[in-house]
Each structure stands twice: as C-alpha cells, then as structure tokens.
Amino acid sequence: MAFKWRKWNIIIHRDLGYLCVGLTLIYAVSGVAVNHIDDWNPNYDIQRIESQMEPITTDYASRDELAQEVMRRLQIEKPYKSTFLPNPQTIEIYLDQHTITVNYKTGVVQQEIIKNRPILRQFNFLHLNEPKKLWTWVADIYAISLGILAITGMFILKGKKGITGRGAWLTGIGILLPVLFLWGYF
Amino acid sequence: MKRLFVLTLTVLWGFLCIHQAMAADKRTFGEELTLTEETPISEITENPEAYLGKRVLVKGTVVGVCAKRGCWINLASDNDYETLRVKVTDGEIVFPMDIKGHEAWVEGELYKLEFDKDGNLITNTSDDPHVCSNHQHKEGESCDADGGTKAETDAEKTETSAESKSEVAEVIYQLKGIGAVVQD
C-alpha cells in the first residue's frame, strides 16, 4: 500500500493548526502591542499625579521617621516597602506598584502609580519570553510548529489553486515582501 | 479526544501547582549568581577605575526600572544620594516594574561611558552598544527603538581618540548585569 503523504500532510496541518491557535493569538496581539513600543507602554499604565503638601521643616533622626511623617500628611495608610534619598531635599517612598517622591523642603509631591495592562501584560510576558526556563522550550516547539504549518500548508490543495498554480504566486509574494524590505532598509 | 484534553490539562495544572509551591520568596533573572562576596556600591562609586572590567556582586534597593523594555534598573547605594545603573542585554533579562522598592543582588561587570559636551557618546568599554545611560535616559524613559546611542566603531575610535579624549565632558560608570536575584 502506497504511503498517502497528502493525507498525512492534511492531518498534521489540521491538528497542529488547532494546537497552535491559542499561542498564535497571544503572539499576534502581543506582536502588534510591542511593535508600537515607541508610542506607548504596552505593559503598564503609568499614572503620574502631582500635588502639594506643607513643607517639612523639622529635622528627623531617621529616614523612616521622615517617611512616616510624609505618609501621615498624605493620609496613606498602606505599608511602604523601602525608602531612598536621591538628594538632600527629596525622599522617595516605595509602596506596591506606587512610588511617592516628595521634595520635603518645597512640599511638592509626585506620585507614580503603575498598573499592569490587563491581558496585554500577560501576553507580552509570554511573547517576550520573560519566564525563560520551561517556557523557552514551549516557545521553541511553537516556532518549529509554525514552520511545519507553513510547509504543510503549501501542499494542502492540488491543481490550479495549489502550490503549482495560484499558490506559487502568493507564496512568491510572501517571500518577496521581506526581501524587498531588507533590500531597502537593511 | 476528550480524555486526552482532560489529561493534558490535569498534567499542566499539576505541574504549575508544584512550580508555585516550590517558588521561593526571591525572583531570579538571567544567569545564576556565582559570586558570594558583595562589593558595596559606595566603594565602586568612590573608586570606579579599580573595578573597571571586573565582575562584582552588588546589593541595593531597586529605585528605578526601565518602564518600557525592562532593560535597566537603578540600585540605591549604601550611601545616600547615590545610585548605580545596571544595564542588561535587551531581551536577555527583562526587569518588571513591580520590583521597584525591593532589594536586589546583581552580578555584572563594570564599564565606562564617556560623553562629550553635547551629550554624544564617545567611548563605551562594554560590548553592548545599547547603553541606556542615566545621562541620556531618566527614569520612566526608555531607550529608543535603536537602543539609544551607539558607540563609534573601532576605526572611528582610532581616528579621533586623541581629539575626543580632550573633549570628554562626562564619565559614567554602569554595571553590565548578567544575573540578578530580587527579594519579593
């Protein structure tokens, strides 16, 4: 019995295609998001708020005491993680995804609140391989699967609409497109 | 087919549960740390030339993170008013913004950047052309698509070395980070 390669080609293309749907959508959405990284932040929504409080004129014995006084004045009850003095007039107080910068001599307060962009942060986390470890293998297998999908896809149809007819022209255009851009830009 | 789906889902879920249970209270980035002796950041900032090209382990609070690409962090020194920028190779390590305020240990190599009076980079002793230096990119900003200023080529360096040395207006030392551990 002859080996029915076209039948197996279709089976591989079909089942691998189903398996790749989830990841393809993740990579597609994230791909568009990170393509425009110069225009926006695809991972975080950063809110910056400026306000004014009474300047602090008292000298505090420790940075912690100063931070507590700032927190009291700003009526923020959440615990802070750490503090830093970038210069002699300024204290930075770090809370969870929230930084308070206070020039305690002038009383100018700047708050930076960071929120993960829902879905996009997670998609980009996977797309840019931030987890590393086992995910690197999953991403490699996915990349190989895309290659297999591309090759098997060319041989799904026979005849005029297959790779010997219309398919040849479209495949040629698809290959020429990156070549032209490389020629022009690289 | 339904059984295969349920089985796959169960195995994956089980794996993730084990992984979560084993997750420590520290997050790791890049290569594993090999050094055990910490060098205070203040020692490096006091005498940077002594550490140039050397591998060091530093510890400090993360006080700044590259908002867009996660390609650098600023570590607070053990002295007030001082920080050290850690630059990592783009994509190899991506620092998330939620590590701001956390304590971190970073291993890396110190390198030097020299700028002329117009802020143009004239010397970069690291092999990373994307310098994202504190000089050019303040907190909340990021390197541009090309990764910021690129150092000149070796040929250009030779050609202008004598001339450019006299034009150095600012010298910045950064750590090329290869591995980091951040306390959660």
Q: Care to describe what's here?
A:
- The complex is a heterodimer of chains A (186) and B (184).
- Chain A has five helices and five strands, in the order H-E-H-E-E-E-E-H-H-H.
- Chain A has 186 residues and is an alpha+beta fold.
- Chain A has two domains: 5-40 and 120-167, no CATH class; 44-116, no CATH class.
- In chain A, strands 1-5-4-3-2 form a five-stranded antiparallel beta sheet, with helices on one face.
- In chain A, a hairpin with a 2-residue loop joins strand 3 and strand 4 (98-103).
- In chain A, helix 1 (5-35) crosses helix 3 (120-127) and helix 1 packs across helix 4 (133-154).
- Chain A is elongated.
- In chain A, 13% of the residues are buried.
- The mean pLDDT of chain A is 94.
- By secondary structure, chain B is an alpha+beta fold.
- In chain B, strand 3 (72-76) and strand 4 form a beta hairpin.
- The A-B interface holds A 37-38, 41-44, 46, 80-82, 84-88, 92, 94-97, 99, 112, 114, 128-130 and B 61, 63, 67-69, 76, 80-81, 83, 91, 94, 96-98, 100-103, 140, 142, 144-145.
